[in-house]
Design a protein that fits this description.
This protein is α/β, with parallel strands linked by helices. Helices cover 27% and strands 18% of the residues. It is built from 9 helices and 13 strands.
Length: 307
């Protein structure tokens, strides 16, 4: 069994921005269009009420295909399932999944909705177009506003990467490699010092290694010109990035910062790669980030006997 798509659970409710208000989703049908990175002949579905405060009932769940065909999903033989607060349920159960753990830059902020042009999508496209290897699927566990060390408020920014590593990464079926791109929000939104961010990243490394997996560190991209990214956070970013590059803690490093920064103004994104807010890269930049990854190197890191 391989994980080809993951959607990270969040506590709280984000502003709707014109979309469905999940608190009002009673007696309604919700359709999620999914973009799996590897095909197959069967599907395993996980539903969660991990951060809920009361039970939630799914009266019916179906898996549809582009041709309109629908297949009912069953849980213990029944089509309806009620999840108590804090509970997940998985339908009855491949190998070679890489999980991207990150924040809004991993989640694809700066690209068009439903365009599937995040760096993780572009990475999978390269894998799919190349020679067969250990790398197969790439799933995205990015949450906008997420931090390495702090469970931010409002809670829809998600619990910290340290607190969600098990549920969102290590406990996913078929996980073989972890890619981590986090830290910018710790430094800017919460003014967490570099040494604490480094400590949090080291914790992710140690726990991933303890699970028998390899982990790749991705440097923090520039944010000069963004409202809360002043001289202090930029200096702390340089310290964290230096540690990512030189500490040897990670099994490999991809220098995202070097790919998208302005050579003439290294604390800023190159104008051609700036989505407009000076923090989030655009689709062209995400493609460059994916292109910077050495697929042969990543393939050598993949666990041949994943969880």
């Amino acid at each position: 069994m391989i994980t080809t798509l993951s959607v990270t659970a969040e506590s709280g409710v984000r502003p709707t921005f014109g979309r469905l208000d999940c608190l009002a989703a009673a007696n309604q049908t919700i359709r999620n269009v999914v973009y799996p990175t590897v095909g197959g002949t069967s599907v395993r579905v996980r539903l969660t009420n991990r951060y809920g405060t009361r039970p939630v009932t799914f009266d019916q769940v179906t898996v549809g295909q582009p041709n309109g065909a629908k297949t009912p999903v069953t849980f213990g033989g029944g089509t309806s399932v009620t999840l108590a607060a804090g509970v997940d349920v998985v339908t009855a159960p491949h190998v070679g999944t890489s999980v991207a753990l990150g924040d809004s830059i991993t989640d694809g902020t700066g690209t068009a909705d439903n365009s599937n042009t995040r760096w993780s999508d572009a990475l999978f496209a390269r894998i799919a177009a190349g020679q067969p290897g250990q790398l197969q699927a790439v799933t995205n566990s990015g949450i906008g506003g997420n931090e390495v060390t702090l469970d931010r408020q409002p809670p829809y920014f998600g619990v910290s990467a340290q607190h969600r590593l098990d549920a969102d990464v290590l406990d996913q079926p078929g996980v073989s490699l972890v890619l981590v791109a986090e830290g910018i929000n710790d430094l800017t939104a919460s003014n967490i010092p570099a040494d604490e961010v480094i400590g949090g990243l080291r914790d992710l490394v140690d726990r991933t290694h303890a699970a028998g997996l390899k982990i790749v560190g991705l440097t923090i991209t520039p944010c000069g010109g963004y409202g809360v990214c002043g001289a202090g956070p930029l200096a702390q970013r340089a310290i964290v990035n230096s540690w990512i590059r030189t500490s040897g803690a990670f099994d490999a490093v991809v220098d995202f910062d070097a790919v998208v920064r302005d050579p003439a103004n290294p604390d800023h994104l190159l104008a051609a790669y700036d989505s407009g807010d000076h923090l989030h890269p655009n689709a062209a930049a995400y493609q460059q980030l994916a292109d910077a990854m050495d697929l042969r190197q990543l393939d050598r890191l993949v666990d041949r006997h994943p969880r």
